[in-house]
Amino acid sequence: MKGKHPKYRPYKQPAGGWGAAAATAKVLMQQSVLTKGSRALLSMNQPGGFKCPSCAFPDPDKRQTLEFCENGAKALAFEATKRRVTREFFQAHTVSALRDKSDHWLEMQGRLTEPMRYDPGSDKYVPVNWDDAFALIGRHLRGLDSPHRAEFYTSGRTPNEAAFLWSVMVREFGTNNFPDCSNMCHEPTSRGLPPAIGIGKGTCRMDDFDVTEALFVIGQNTGTNSPRMMTNLVEARKRGIPIVAINPMPERALIEFTSPQDVVQMATFGHTDIASEFVHIRLGGDLAFFKGMMKVLFERDAAGEQVLDHDFIATHTTGFDAIRADVEAQDWDEIVAHSGVGEDQIRRVAEVYVRSKATMLCYGMGLTQHQRGSQLVQQACNLLFLRGNIGKPGAGIVPIRGHSNVQGDRTCGIDDQPSQQLLDSVEKVFGFAAPRQPGHNARRAVAAMMAGEARVFIGLGGNFVRAVPDTERSYAAMRGLDLTVGINTKLNRQHVVHGREALILPVIARSETIVTSKGEQALSIEDSMSKVTASRGVLEPASPDCRPEVEIVCRMAMAALPRTTTGWAAFAEDYDLIRDKMEAVYPEMFARLNEKLKNPEGFHLDVPPRRREWPTPTAKANFLVLPGLEVNDGVSDDRMLRLATIRSHDQFNTTVYSNNDRYRGVWGDRMVLFINEIDRTARGLRVGQKVGLETIFGDGITRRVDGLTVLDYPISPGAVAGYYPELNPLLPLDYRDAISETPAAKSIPVRVISDVGAPD
Ligand code: SF4
After folding, report:
1. Chain centroid to CA 439: how far?
2. Which of 3.30.2130.10, 2.40.40.20, 3.80.30.20, 3.30.70.100 is the CATH number of 641-753?
3. Which of 228, 362, 649, 650 most suits a substitution to test ligand 1, by most atoms within 8 Å of the C-beta?
4. b/e per residue, 505-514, with b = 16+ CB within 10 A?
5. What is the pLDDT of residue 757?
6. Is the pLDDT assigned to residue 760 strictly greater than 60?
């Protein structure tokens, strides 16, 4: 659809720049909070202020006056919005009518203001007071014949104190059913990294960016999903540091970026070229690419070049010979075919890697959301081990986390597979018998709902039913529950796809103040690089009837646990008491927690691999072999394309701020299919044509989405892309990473259905 089309026109400007500035101003005006929002933004990510409620990218050691990005501003504007979802709103809308509304429309209605209970008679939500709401929850939970029939979901927005208490309440209740949002994204990091390095977290800090000699950005759309990292990439480029961007989609910000705070660039419409090497990899071709790079290193080592860190390998690793044998056995033609990258480019990138004495490898969902995502993350470690790129300045593995406190939640006990050591400590500190059987992650929670085993779902934040795979089946399962509870700031799909009984509980937002009988309370947040910082809101809560997450958890616990001796009431008033217990349960990790949080700069949690200490079974870093060159099962259908579900630039997880995606040239449409021109013409499709997609997954269930507009996009051949969560109906619950069970949402096997019923 060449030329000027209102909805689809290529975005030629660099990412960031005036586009970002305009979008920031626009969203503040759209939500009628230009003054209030601008004032709050001056406190966001600042010492003594509040942590951005959006992604988990860390604050730089040296902060700028404006320490936020366009997407952080959107998250704040939608929290601070003047719009309110009142009892009058619910009186005017049946839930059935709300169900037909788009995610964006629901989001745009504004902040929830009071607790609401679903009334099946009128098919509407009606006001309920907090006491009755907790009584209803308590009745349902105490009425279950097994605690394992309840699912307790945690969104990555949940701060440490609430997450810790949630983990204690649920275990005192008797289960480890902790589906959480990281199950959908970085669980392969949390489950894949420990066997390799001994911890499920990244090994770098922000100051590593200042001394690194090469940066790899793999399967991550930095300009949209962690925009402040663009500052580090721009600074690196200005230092002449090579950046290798590896992605099936040439995302705008990985190519050109204008720093909105760079007055000269803004005044001159200048920009910085970001990727010094863009690797247009085949979707799922990362394993073959990693092995290609390692093969070059082994060849050059065999030729006598000093390209491997043999001291590091000998001192700190196991499994080197097995990796060498596996990689050397790979054939170059196969590597090129499976990676979709030419041997010359692989050798060129390997040279970039060899010239660097300290390399950081940053990655996102493009590595994790595959059937062998956890093992693929381990292959990234293999590559880093070969040159000793862990445990030295400027080097390491850098999972770029999605949600602001998703790492903190896991650190504070949100884990369906808790260690016996943690359970022992919880028992010692709280005096109740902790459940020892592993619980449910997100996939298992949905499966339990589908099987009718689960009866109650409580979501501490988030939009679970919209985020999980197999939408139609998951919706039906959620509707079959006895009770669903959504604890949120704004209206979302979870509230309109609900159980027989349902509650909506409005929560105080991250940017708002929490004042109890003990005065103003601070929260703590852990970022992607294991830094824990205090967060204090600056705005008045949206409604006097919104309650803090901590209070909601405490009152729910008192309703569900009639014989509890845990000091829930005291915790709700004084968050220092919660942190005292966090220190008691995690004496090493959270030693002197309250004291440390008084430092507005926060503190880093210990990450032993930074000291080249490896809490693995071998007490070493482990090279781990993943045989072959593919991270997904083969599919014998020559019409098959691999679908990657992606986020637009105006979206954060399932939160849709607008139907635009300017960097990809889409305005006002979320039902689009990005396809390579070669694959489009090969199927006789026209740009602008409406098509359907059907999943190829031999479980006898038809999964199909229609009404997608075909758009040419330079995505790597053999792959197509479309928006999450609209395309989640195509993602089978069991199409997942083998180890972490994370949905393999970046490689769904599909075929295009052009004219209704006729696959192309
Ligand atoms: S980079 Fe992430 S944490 Fe930082 S302001 Fe933007 S959205 Fe918020």
Report:
1. 21
2. 2.40.40.20
3. 228
4. bbbbbbbbeb
5. 46
6. no
Which of ligand 1's atoms lies nearest the C-alpha of 227?
1
Residue nearest to atom 8 of ligand 1 (CA): 72
Tokens representing residue 724 in the block: 């999450």
Asked if 443 and 733 touch (Cβ cutoff 8 Å), the reply is yes
Centre of ligand 1 to C-alpha 409, Å, is 18
Is pTM beyond 0.85? Reply is yes
At 672, list the tokens: 């689009």
- Please say whether the beta carbons of 401 and 309 come within 8 A: no
Candidates 3.90.79.10, 3.20.170.30, 3.40.50.740, 3.40.50.300; CATH matching 86-185+405-573: 3.40.50.740
Ligand 1, pocket-test mutation among 67, 68, 403, 511, most atoms within 8 A of CB = 68
| Residues 647-702 pLDDT 10s | 999 999 999 999 999 999 999 999 999 999 999 999 999 999 999 999 999 999 99
Given a contact cutoff of 8 angstroms between Cβ atoms, the answer to whether 72 and 40 are in contact is: no
Ligand 1 centre and the CA of 225: distance in Å? 8
Write the Ramachandran bin of 270: left for phi over 0, alpha for psi from -120 to 50, otherwise beta. Answer: beta
Span 621-648, pLDDT tens digits: 999 999 999 999 998 899 999 999 999 9
The closest-lying atom of ligand 1 relative to the alpha carbon of residue 229 is: 1
Q: What 3-state class would DSSP assign to 397?
A: strand
Which of 54, 233, 655 has the most ligand 1 atoms within 8 A of CB, as the residue to mutate?
A: 54
Q: Which residues line ligand 1 (CB under 6 A)?
A: 52, 54-55, 57, 68-69, 71-72, 226-228
Topology given in CATH for the domain delimited by 188-399: Dimethylsulfoxide Reductase; domain 2 (3.40.228)
- With tokens 């040239």, the residue in question is 665
Ligand 1 centroid–CA 737 distance in Å is 28
pLDDT exceeds 70 at position 258: yes
Residue-wise pLDDT for 99-150, tens only, equals 999 999 999 999 999 999 999 999 999 999 999 999 999 999 999 999 999 9
Q: Residue 248: which of 186, 333, 340, 369 has the closest Cα?
A: 340
What is the DSSP track for 447-508?
HHHHTT---EEEEESS-HHHHSS-HHHHHHHHHTSSEEEEEESB--HHHHS--SEEEEEEB-
Q: Give the three-class secondary structure for 582.
A: helix
Assess contact for 485 and 503: CB atoms under 8 A. Answer: yes
Ligand 1 atom 7: residue of nearest CA = 72
Q: Which of 57, 234, 525, 650 to mutate to test the pocket of ligand 1 (most atoms within 8 A of CB)?
A: 57
Alpha helix stretches (DSSP H) within 593-729: 593-596, 677-682
Q: Nearest C-alpha to atom 2 of ligand 1 is from which residue?
A: 55
Q: How many angstroms separate the alpha carbon of residue 68 from the centre of ligand 1?
A: 6
**Rounded CA gap, 248 and 531, in Å?**
31
Question: Would you kindly state where each structural domain of the chain is located, as residue ranges?
Answer: 12-79, 86-185+405-573, 188-399, 641-753
Cβ atoms of 214 and 356 closer than 8 Å: yes
| SS3 state at 245 | strand
